[in-house]
Amino acid sequence: MSAAEAHLCRGCRSTRGQVVLDLGDQPAADHFPLATDPGPDPRHPLAMWWCADCGLAQLLADATVPDEPRAIEPRAAVRQAHEAVAELVGAGLLVPGGFIEFASPHGGSWRGALEECGFRPAQGDRAGVVIDVYGLMHDRDQAAGLRARAAALTDDGTLVLQFPTYAATVRRREWNALRHGHFAYHSVPAARRLLDAAGLTAFAARTYSLYSGSVLLLASRSGAGPATEAAALDELERAELAAGVLDPTAMAALGAALEDDVSRLRRWVDDQPGGAWLYGAGSRAVAVLAAAGLRPGAVAGIADGAPAKQGRRMPGTDIPVVAPEALLAADPDHILLMLPDLADELRDAWPSMADRWVVYGSH
Q1: pLDDT tens digit sequence for 46-93
Q2: Residues 237 and 298 both lie in one domain
Q3: Is residue 209 domain-shared with residue 95, that is, in the same domain?
Q4: Higher-confidence residue: 355 or 106?
Q5: Are residues 100 and 221 in the same domain?
Q6: Do 220 and 146 fall within a single domain?
Q7: Global pTM value
Q8: What confidence score (pLDDT) does residue 362 get?
Q9: pLDDT averaged over the chain?
């Protein structure tokens, strides 16, 4: 890449960095063709670039156009929203008042959880609490995105920023976390640097198991907060540094994991008589199934509760996305769950099938 073509960091505009994961040409994770569409589906370069200056892992390039959001919010995400708001208010880290929420294409909202605890939507364009849960990662320009969130804060306001942490991606070697439309993969140290550049300072953090591992940061202009919270935040940052979020050598394991994951998937599918059954047509499943190149008909179907995905097929494959009723009617002995966050929800919904779920990554 020439100097004229050098990638500019989406956060700090540096050109110092390197590609740490390259998946080649992949179908867009949000483009679900109709089941009757024979393809071939468009494919686009998909690579992750890491900035050596601010530490932000990010999408190198993206020529795709966002498609209609088709996912539905898992019960685990709704529960976490209510638990997080109640805990932050109880700890005195948030004070009920007006709020502004930056929407996420992942769907869902914290509005209900906030209103239960006495918050109300702000009447103007600034608020004492600004919420961003899984939204910022979808901004091509990360610096501009954070400036917009900072501008929505009152002078003494608090930003609540939640993201799937890149530390979990590196620890778990989740190469399939990379997808078109997700422009940033935040770690605590990188997020703190970007917040500082936007005039905000993180003063507290919480961690959650949602989406393989998520972090919630609280930030304000003053950065004032309890000393115990600051110490816990610093400890979380040290743990993420130890995981390798600023070490491109550690990130090399992401690419090495791809073939292992795909090989395990192929073996599991081949062992299922009459065609395998899967559940959860999420973006991470798109990457895995497109990379696996399974033989035609190897997967009987992938069930998903989102009506907008049903009647379509997984991008880059012949695998049909069907309603859960089709899976129940097939009554398979084993079902590969591609979205681990749904495990408890599905076992509760269909107790007679509770022992048939095989969670992706453990198969």
Answers
A1: 999 999 999 999 999 998 877 655 567 788 899 999 999 999 999 999
A2: no
A3: yes
A4: 355
A5: yes
A6: yes
A7: 0.93
A8: 75
A9: 94
Residue ending a domain, among 231, 260, 289, is 260
Domain containing residue 144: CATH number: 3.40.50.150
Same domain, 267 and 331: yes
As beta bridge partners, residue 44 has 26
Range of the domain at 291: 261-359
Please give, one letter per residue, the 3-state secondary structure of the chain: CCHHHCCCCCCCCCCCEEEEEEEEEEECCCCCCECCCCCCCCEEEEEEEEECCCCCEEECCCCCCCCCCCCCCCHHHHHHHHHHHHHHHHCCCCCCCEEEEECCCCCCCCHHHHHHCCCEECCCCCEEEEEEECCHHHCCCHHHHHHHHHHCEEEEEEEEEEEECHHHHHHCCCHHHCCCCCCEECCHHHHHHHHHHCCCEEEEEEEECHHHCEEEEEEECCCCCCHHHHHHHHHHHHHHHHHCCCCHHHHHHHHHHHHHHHHHHHHHHHCCCCCEEEECCCHHHHHHHHHHCCCCCCEEEEECCCCCCCCEECCCCCCEEECHHHHHHHCCCCEEECCHHHHHHHHHHCHHHCCCEEECCCC
Please identify, among 212, 229, 260, the residue that sits at the C-terminal boundary of a domain: 260
